[in-house]
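re: that chain from earlier
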Amino acid sequence: MPQSIARVTLLVRNYDEALEFYTQKLGFHLLQDTPLPDKKRWLLVAPPNSRGAALLLAEADTPEQSRSIGNQTGGRVFLFLHTDDFHRDYKAYQSHGVHFLESPRQESYGTVAVFEDLYGNKWDLLEPTAPVDRPTNGD
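^ sequence. v structure.
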């Protein structure tokens, strides 16, 4: 059976502020917003026309979880957002106040720039130069 990653949990400070950032600034679509017990929500967002994993926005509810907001990977780039038109999305994100940590650069794998989400998690906005290959059988 083929497998794929379906959801990635992203710790957030507040459901509504996170939803606003992802839908208004990055243009993601709200896929699901279902109330759960204890004031929790099943809140899923994804880029438009995405065929990949969706983000589960999870409001931190312990001090330990709160300490991880914005630093879920110890300062490394956390998520890689592929696009078919880097400059279109780069300009749109800039116009919506998304903070880029660097100017766009050309690498052997594509055009890329690192930006931060509203909590400081680092993302790569990336237009690959070629389709992304997936290793098979451990290759």
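The helical segments are 15-25, 63-68, 86-95.
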